[in-house]
């Protein structure tokens, strides 16, 4: 059998690119196939009229240069392994929350400054605040001591368990806990518990009770150690560097090519079939698609189908990419904001506004005298599916909804509507079309109360077919899918006879 590569990767999201880069550096041959003309998936950048916009998030963990600070520092360690670097700039405030009843809380890099600010609003909960955030620190302390690897790799588990037995047992016990239930052990004030909910929802799109404590420990503690660091040039700098690493070691990336089917014969994945009919064969296949797209679209055998309701389906997004006059952004304005008008609607479509102005950190993203603003809310494809994408009614619906969001954001940035010089709008249908994601979803979520280890791992029901990305453990977010890529590469490398060295 003639192989196009040892491993074929379907999609150039960060999880897939991470796996490809590490496998290629280790001596395996890889072929990454991407339907678009640029890499990165939800972590890409695009340009319009001199502005550079981040497709998705612009809050990034894992870039600390000091390995004593930051949960695993995966980005820094990976690029170090590849002999590359991504220049970043530190953000002193992770998120500035603007919440009902005048609750206004910036989350500073310095943890004590953040906790002091939170206690100023809730002095009667001072002890509970300390104890809850200390719980998150304890998760961070365990995770930062353990090397990244596959939880399905018995050799890795044995090594970690033998070297860090106490921490491994402690971590296993913490997987049984949720962030919200842990908070309720120490905190009683309902307004403060709502703040804990939005701390979770801001990155997990679930309330705190539904969010595993382990996941919370990664994000809500690491921000005070490794910190939040923005890649110069925009989020697309991350996939660009991973692609550079892949190609540096001889790997290939095929753009403008769409995988229509994962070829399975006798229960084994043997390669992929492209939209033009070409078959490319490999020893292993990694799907960076969602679990629904992998099992219900790319795998044609109905035996591998999964029901949509097996997992909670995270919402999609409505996004506004704006180029604005810089005069509307005051001196000292923070980069990242989360706004909630009504606690009864914060977890409903459009209920929470995410707002970023990354050109405050990196002026190269916008023409002189201008700023880039990215504002977005959760949304559902069902709200738009009755409209024809090319019809004037679709365009008007987008503009009307964007206008309502602009008016809401003027609570923190007065005059924003009049300062807009460029507007690019995207609905869940845009996400579904460009990213090939089922209903444009942010990915699968666990049902409340489920153990975080019930999140799909890298192996699938098909031999030699693996998964990476937000459908796999540990879940959504750039640093999480990076971990999934490391884990996936680790398992495949061992199964093919040349294990990765720990990062």
From TrEMBL:
<feature type="domain" description="Amine oxidase">
    <location>
        <begin position="14"/>
        <end position="492"/>
    </location>
</feature>
<dbReference type="InterPro" id="IPR036188">
    <property type="entry name" value="FAD/NAD-bd_sf"/>
</dbReference>
<dbReference type="Pfam" id="PF01593">
    <property type="entry name" value="Amino_oxidase"/>
</dbReference>
<dbReference type="GO" id="GO:0016491">
    <property type="term" value="F:oxidoreductase activity"/>
</dbReference>
<dbReference type="GO" id="GO:0016116">
    <property type="term" value="P:carotenoid metabolic process"/>
</dbReference>
<dbReference type="InterPro" id="IPR045892">
    <property type="entry name" value="CrtISO-like"/>
</dbReference>
<protein>
    <submittedName>
        <fullName>FAD dependent oxidoreductase</fullName>
    </submittedName>
</protein>
<dbReference type="InterPro" id="IPR002937">
    <property type="entry name" value="Amino_oxidase"/>
</dbReference>
